[in-house]
Write a structure and sequence with these properties.
Elements lengths: L3 E3 L6 E4 H5 L11 E6 L6 E4 L4 H14 L3 H11 L3 E9 L7 E9 L2
Antiparallel strand pairs: 1-2, 3-4, 3-6, 5-6
Bound molecules: zinc ion.
Length: 110
C-alpha cells in the first residue's frame, strides 16, 4: 500500500505515513503545498500556506455554518481552479485497530 504523498510539481516527499506512524516527523511541505487537512485529528487544517489564509478562513466558516467537511470545500475549490490539485491518501492505522483516516493535501500546480 502506498503510504506517501509526493508533490506533483517538484517530486518532493511531502507526507510519509510510515514515519508518522512511528512517531517521526513525516510531514515536509514544499512550496506547492497550500492546504493540508486530515480527518484523523480534530477536523481542522493542519497546514495553511500564507497565500491561502483568507481562503482557509472562509472554508472554516462555511464548514461550521453549513455543517460540511473541509475536504469537500477543498474539492470544490480545486474544481473551480485549474491550477490546484488535491491528492488524497487513506490509511488504516495499525495503532487504532480498524479505524482509518484520510489526509488531503492541496497543491498549487501552476
Ligand atoms: Zn512541490
Amino acid at each position: 500500500m502506498e503510504n506517501k504523498i509526493i508533490c506533483p510539481v517538484c517530486k518532493e516527499l511531502v507526507l510519509d505515513i510510515n514515519k508518522v506512524d512511528k512517531g517521526e516527523d513525516g510531514f515536509n511541505p514544499c512550496n506547492h503545498v497550500m492546504l493540508v487537512y486530515t480527518d484523523a485529528l480534530s477536523f481542522e487544517f493542519i497546514h495553511i500556506d500564507e497565500s491561502m489564509e483568507s481562503v482557509a478562513k472562509d472554508m472554516i466558516e462555511k464548514s461550521a455554518e453549513d455543517d460540511v467537511f473541509l475536504n469537500e470545500l477543498m474539492n470544490d475549490f480545486a474544481m473551480k481552479h485549474d491550477n490546484y490539485e488535491i491528492i488524497e491518501l487513506t490509511t488504516s492505522g495499525m495503532s487504532c485497530g480498524p479505524c482509518g483516516n484520510t489526509d488531503y493535501v492541496m497543491f498549487k500546480i501552476g
